[in-house]
Amino acid sequence: MPAALLQHPFMSQTALAECNTDAMIAAMLTFELALAEVQEAHGALPEGVSGEMRDLLEAHAFDGQAIAAGIASGGNAAIPFVKQARSALPDELKRYFHQGATSQDVVDTALMLLLEPRLASLDALLLRCRAAATALMVTHDETVMVGRTLMQQALPITFGVKVAHWAIGLEQARRRLAGVALPVQFGGAVGVHSGWDDPGLDFMDALAERLGLSAPVLPWHTDRQPIHALGTALDAVAGAAEKLALDVALLTQTEVGEVAEPAAPGMGESSSMPHKRNPVRCALIRGAVRQVHGHTTVLLNAAAQPLERGLGEWHAEWAPLLDGALLLEGALEQAAVLFEGLEVHPEAMRRNLAVTGGGIMAEPVSKLLVPILGQDVAKRISAEAAETARRQGIPYAEALEAHPELQGQLAPEAVARATDPALYLGSSKRQVRRAITWLQDE
C-alpha cells in the first residue's frame, strides 16, 4: 500500500514518527522489564535479576522485520518478540523473563503505553482549539450573520454563537476523552494469574503504578470495555472536529464567502484552475475523521469476545485503535491552525443577510402585524412582502410599506426595528458569555 501517499497525509507526522515498529518493540520491552522489577520487588525473582535483564535487553538490537514475520505463525507480535528477547539472555536468566505473563498482557499494555502520549497530545491540541475559539467568540459576539436550517436562510444569529457551538462540542469531547483510563494488562494465560495465586493481583497493581497506567479491577482480556470507552471517546472528538470542518467548508463557498481558511503559500491550490482556493484543511479534517468513524466501528464490533481470549476480535483492534488516534491527531493539528488563522468576513455576512432583501426578517414582522391584523393575515402579508422584496430586489421594509393592506397601519420606525437583523438575535450574546464561562470552568 502506498501509505505515504494515501494514508499518512491525514495523520500527525509527529505521531507517526513516535508510533513505529521500534516504538512498539520498546513498549513491549518496557512492559517485560517492569514486570520483572515488580516480581523482584515482591521476592518472586532473585535479587538483581531484573537489572541484569534490563542491561542486556536495552542494549540488544531487536530485529523488527523478523518479529513481523513471526506474527504469521503466532498471531501476534509478542510471541516472536519474547523469543528474540529470551535468545538474547543467558540461560540462567531466560526462565525469569515473561514469567507469568501471556502475549495479550504484552500487546495490550504496549498499546496503552503507545497511546498515553498520543492522548496527551490530543488534549494539548484541543486546548489550543479552545483558546483560539474563545478569542473568536469575544471578537464576534455582535457580528451578525445568517442562521441556516435545512441549508436555507432562516433567522439571524451571531458568528460568535456559531463558534461557541464548535468550541463546546470539542470541549465536551475533550473532557470525555480526558476521563478515559488506560489500564495495564496482566492476567496470565487465562486471566487469573495462574501459578501466582493471590500475589498476582498485587503484581498487576504494582505494574500499573510503575508504568504510569491505571490499575483495572481485574485483567480485561475479553472484557473490552476499556477499548470501547477509548474508541468511542476518540470518535466523539472526531465528530466535533468534523462539525467544525463541515461548517467552515460550507461558509467558504464562493457564493457565501463568509469565512476563509488561513492563507499559506500553495495552500488550497488546484491542479488546473489558478483562481481556486480550496478549503484543504477542512478536507483533510473530514477525510481523517471519516476514517476514525470507520475504525470505531471495528472496535465496537469487537467488543464481545469469546471465553478467555479473543479469536480475531482482539487482533482486529490493534490497527484501528492506533490509526484512529493518529488520524485524529492529524485532524486536530489542522483544526488548531484553522481556528487560529480563520479569516472572518463580516461584510460578506451583511451582504448575505440582504440577499432576500431582508425577507429573513419575516418572522419578527409577522409578530409586529399580529395585534393589528390577526395571526393568519399577518403571516400571509409578511410572506408576500418577503417574496416581493426577493423578486424585485428591493428592501423588505420598502416592500412592506408598499403593501396595499398595510397603508397607514405601521410607523416607519416600527418597520425599521422589525426588519433590522441586529435587533433580532435572541440570546446570542448571552450564549457567548455563558459558553466562555463554561469553557473556562474545569
TrEMBL record:
GO MF assignments: isomerase activity
Coiled coil: none
Superkingdom of the source species: Bacteria
Keywords assigned by UniProt, alphabetized: Isomerase
Annotated ranges, domain Adenylosuccinate lyase C-terminal: 357-436
PANTHER family: ADENYLOSUCCINATE LYASE, ADENYLOSUCCINATE LYASE C-TERMINAL DOMAIN-CONTAINING PROTEIN
Similarity comment: Belongs to the class-II fumarase/aspartase family.
Designated name of the protein: 3-carboxy-cis,cis-muconate cycloisomerase
